[in-house]
Write a sequence for this structure.
């Protein structure tokens, strides 16, 4: 494959890169939306408002939000750097985009590893908060925990726990009256919501891992293509090395043969011109020959 064919292939690959940059920007937007939903969503917010500050859920909730925002920022930065590098053919910017994609890949791998080894950690933390609020509300129905428990039940559209009616106290029996009695158990409602949220997060993480692998391969290929393209195309810029004073440049054999052939060609043209002028103007011949 010649240099121009390689350049054409690189240009086609850059068009693919521009489309892929848009995909990465959309992926970053989805990650940011998921992080915002995890932190500011109604289901997570009502549990976070009811949980004490020293519970594991509060620290985990904050850590997941910061991790999601960081991933979205790295994805957006990598997409912008790769887009600018593609347009300007800048190897340094392309290397920066590669580092962003590699960082996102490492973070997603760590999160997937944590999710695989601790699949029920988030669920257990939320259920512990609900159990704590439920017990405090039942012991003191006139306190603020009762209002927090009602807010959790209204948000998850659930009511109480799956406890036999004979074991319920008066306060627990008052929780599920009328239409609320037909709702599902709150423990099952929280598990169902977290299961749906976990499926969406796992799908997004899988797409992100596959995208980061392709992004790293593509950015590394474009970096090498930009570097090789600079070597192929000099863009009319040459560097003259300084010569030693008093030394004559050594000419190659090809250049010397070219000069000899050029001199013979000029002599033949001068002889032809001398024959056309004739004897009447031979006096001006040397001058014409000198001019030529």
């Amino acid at each position: 494959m010649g240099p121009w064919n390689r350049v054409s292939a690189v240009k086609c690959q850059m068009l693919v890169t521009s489309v892929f940059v848009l995909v990465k920007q959309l992926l970053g937007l989805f990650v940011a939306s998921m992080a915002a939903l995890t932190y500011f969503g109604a289901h997570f917010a009502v549990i976070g408002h009811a949980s004490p500050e020293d519970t594991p859920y509060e620290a985990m909730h904050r850590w997941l939000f910061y991790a999601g925002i960081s991933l979205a920022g790295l994805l957006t930065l990598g997409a912008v750097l790769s887009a600018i590098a593609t347009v300007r053919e800048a190897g340094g910017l392309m290397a920066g985009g590669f580092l962003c994609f590699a960082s996102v890949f490492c973070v997603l791998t760590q999160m997937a590893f944590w999710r695989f080894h601790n699949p029920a950690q988030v669920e257990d933390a939320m259920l512990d908060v609900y159990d704590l609020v439920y017990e405090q509300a039942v012991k003191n129905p006139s306190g603020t925990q009762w209002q927090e428990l009602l807010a959790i039940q209204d948000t998850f559209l659930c009511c109480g726990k799956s406890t036999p009616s004979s074991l319920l106290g008066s306060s627990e029996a008052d929780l599920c009256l009328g239409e609320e009695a037909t709702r599902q158990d709150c423990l099952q409602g929280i598990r169902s919501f977290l299961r749906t949220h976990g499926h969406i997060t796992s799908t997004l993480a899988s797409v992100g891992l596959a995208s980061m692998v392709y992004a790293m391969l593509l950015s590394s290929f474009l970096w090498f293509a930009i570097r090789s393209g600079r070597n192929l195309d000099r863009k009319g810029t040459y560097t003259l090395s300084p010569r030693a004073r008093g030394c004559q440049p050594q000419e190659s054999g090809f250049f010397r043969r070219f000069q000899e052939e050029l001199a013979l060609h000029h002599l033949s043209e001068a002889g032809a011109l001398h024959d056309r002028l004739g004897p009447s103007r031979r006096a001006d011949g040397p001058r014409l020959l000198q001019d030529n």
About this structure: The chain has ten helices and no strands. The chain has a mean pLDDT of 75. Residues 229 and 235 are 11 Å apart (CA to CA). Residues 186-232 form the longest helix (47 residues).
